[in-house]
Specification:
Layout (H helix, E strand, L loop, with lengths): L4 H24 L11 H12 L7 H21 L19 H8 L5 H16 L9 H79 L3 H29 L17 H10 L4 E6 L7 H21 L5 E8 L2 E8 L8 H4 L6 H11 L3 E6 L5 E7 L6 H6 L7
Parallel strand pairs: 1-2
Antiparallel strand pairs: 2-3, 3-5, 4-5
Helix pairs in contact: 1-2, 2-3, 3-4, 3-5, 4-6, 5-6, 6-7, 8-9, 9-11
């Protein structure tokens, strides 16, 4: 019915005020003497007053009904005095008293041409230029033309302000897009440098380690060379995935992370148990539902969390939870309170940026990271990871992922 509650309130208030004004004029002045009764003019005026409430819902019918009533009042004044307008009215204009309010609000709901037509007709009826008079013409112009001009001016000013606001918002969005474009360009540049420099060096390391493992006669050297080659190959895979994330390429499909791979969190749990940390592993769901990049992110999170437990919470027990589902992977590492004070040398050996690096890594793949104290004096590190990350390199490195 109205653009806002405030508009509805003011329309009702104006309708009641003008209805009261018309009742007052009826009580103080002459009444109509025609066959329609002494209150015919009052009823017509009050109907126009309360039609104001419907202005925003039915703008054209309300506008033209006011014009029709004004025309009927003019016809009564000219050809049938006393029918709808008293022979000696207190108001000198032959338009409804609510006319200025209606005209001032029409610019908000009707086009400019219609408003000018309605305002012009009402001005003509009120001013009666065929019998100009200083007692009627100025007041008629003030009650019809002036409200139209004020309404059109107010609406034009509102549209101008809205246009300026839209331009400011559009400029802000364009600036944001330019900043995003610059960041994306910087990410692509970094991805290119990582791919060209680091991948080249790692590839050379893997080749040298493989050659050393083939040519060396000592078993220990061959074993060490194979470990270096395997770790280097995994680093290459992970680097390709991270470069793909930076380039924001196409998405890879999920790939099963076999238990034999070094990226399996189960190996981290076994390593933690082997150094005397009571560690439990709870796995729910199928690891094949997540991509290699997400699996490696979960692996690094578990690795960092278990390392922090060994450094800062000696004697604590740990629970590692991995829940695979269609929406991604939920990871949490919870440890109890430390049973004894940590070794100062071991606790101070880190850089202090482990959790911050984990947060950046998780957010880079589109996940959410949490870390903080747990009830009972322990600590909890967790993340909610998506099922896959849009990386073109991951798809090329995992041909079997395209079929999933």
């Amino acid at each position: 019915m109205w653009p806002s509650r405030a508009d509805g309130f003011w329309l009702f208030l104006a309708a009641f005020v003008f209805a009261g004004l018309n009742v007052l004029l009826y009580a103080l002045g002459d009444v109509t003497t025609g066959p329609l009764g002494p209150a015919a003019g009052l009823v017509l005026q009050v109907l126009c007053d309360f039609s104001l409430v419907l202005l925003f819902r039915f703008p054209r019918p309300v506008a033209w009904s006011v014009v029709a009533v004004a025309g009927a009042m003019l016809a009564s004044d000219l050809f049938a005095p006393g029918l709808l307008v008293p022979v000696h009215p207190l108001a000198l204009t032959t338009v409804p008293a609510i006319t200025p309010v209606v005209l001032s609000q029409l610019a908000r709901v009707l086009d400019r041409r219609t408003v000018l037509w309605v305002g012009g007709i009402l001005t003509l009826i009120a001013a009666r230029p065929w019998i100009p008079s200083w007692s009627t013409t100025p007041f008629a112009v003030l009650s019809t033309t002036l409200p139209v001009l004020l309404g059109l001016y107010g609406e034009a000013r509102k549209q101008l302000l809205r246009s300026l606001r839209d331009r400011a918002e559009r400029a802000e969005r364009e600036q944001h897009l330019l900043a995003e474009q610059a960041r994306a360009e910087e990410r692509r540049r970094l991805a290119g440098e990582m791919h060209d420099v680091v991948t080249h060096r790692l590839s050379l390391m893997v080749l040298h380690a493989g050659a050393l493992g083939v040519t060396s006669a000592e078993e220990a050297v061959r074993t060490a060379a194979e470990d270096i080659r395997r770790e280097g190959a995994l680093a290459l895979d992970e680097l390709r995935d991270l470069v793909g994330v930076l380039r924001n390429g196409a998405e890879p499909g999920p790939r099963t992370l076999s238990p034999a791979e070094p990226g399996d969190p189960a190996r981290l749990v076994e390593d933690s148990r082997s150094v005397g940390v009571p560690t439990e592993l709870a796995v729910d769901g199928d690891p094949a539902q997540v991509s290699p990049t997400v699996a490696r992110t979960a692996y690094r999170l578990v690795q960092e969390a278990l390392t922090n437990v060994r450094k800062h919470a000696p004697g604590a027990s740990v629970t590692v939870s991995l829940r695979y589902h269609r929406g991604g992977l939920d990871v949490s590492v919870d440890n109890t309170a430390a049973a004894r004070p940590p070794d100062p040398a071991l606790a101070g050996s880190g850089s202090g940026a482990g959790l911050a690096g984990l947060r950046q890594r998780v957010e880079l793949v589109g996940g959410r990271f949490t870390a903080g104290p747990a009830p009972g004096g322990g600590f909890r590190v967790g993340a909610i990871l998506p099922p896959y990350v849009p990386t073109a390199e991951g798809t090329r490195c995992d041909p079997g992922a395209r079929g999933r």
